[in-house]
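Archive entry. Fields below.
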Amino acid sequence: DAKTTQPPSMDCAEGRAANLPCNHSTISGNEYVYWYRQIHSQGPQYIIHGLKNNETNEMASLIITEDRKSSTLILPHATLRDTAVYYCIVIGYNFNKFYFGSGTKLNVKP
Amino acid sequence: DAGVIQSPRHEVTEMGQEVTLRCKPISGHDYLFWYRQTMMRGLELLIYFNNNVPIDDSGMPEDRFSAKMPNASFSTLKIQPSEPRDSAVYFCASSLMGQGPEAFFGQGTRLTVV
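PREDICTED_STRUCTURE:
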C-alpha cells in the first residue's frame, strides 16, 4: 500500500472549516484515498473515499489534487464532536487490508 | 442491523490465563478483521477472514494468538497464555466486498493483563 503522511495534530475553531491534509506521493493509478476517524476510545468510523474526482457526502468533502499526490479532507463546520484522530489511507478497491498510520489529531475548540 | 458487536467490552485477567474475545460481524458481510490498538504501535491489523477462511494472519504477533471463524456470524480471538504486553484495545471490523473496502468497526474490547 502507498504510504501516507499527515500532520500529527491540528486545531480548529468551532463552526469554522477544518482542512486536514494528506500526502500520498507514491499512490498508484488504481488506488483509492479513504478517510476514517476515531473518536476517543471508539472504533474507527468511515468518512469518505475517492479516486480522482472530488467527493462530498453528509459528513465531509474530499479534495484530491490533479496529480493525486495529495488530498484534503474538509469538515465544513466543525463542532466539538468532531474532535478525533483522522486517518488517511490509500488502498486498492479490491484489496481489503487496511493499514492505519498515526493520523492527525484534530482539536476543535470553542 | 446493530453493527459489529464485540464482547466483552472490558476484560481484566492475570498473566498466564487464557483470554477469548468475541465478535459478531454485520449480517451479510463477507470480510472480518481483527485489529489491536496500543499507544505505542497504533492500530495494527492482526488477521482477516474472507467467507470464514483466514486469508492473512501475518500480523498475529506470535503463536500465543489464534483466531477462528466457525461461521459467518461469529469469530473469536484467543490469547493463551496471556502476558501483560498483550494489554490493548482489540477491535473487530467487517466489510462487504462488493461495496469496496469500507469497514465497519465494533466498539472494541479493552484487555488488561496484570
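CURATOR_NOTE: Chain A has a mean pLDDT of 91.
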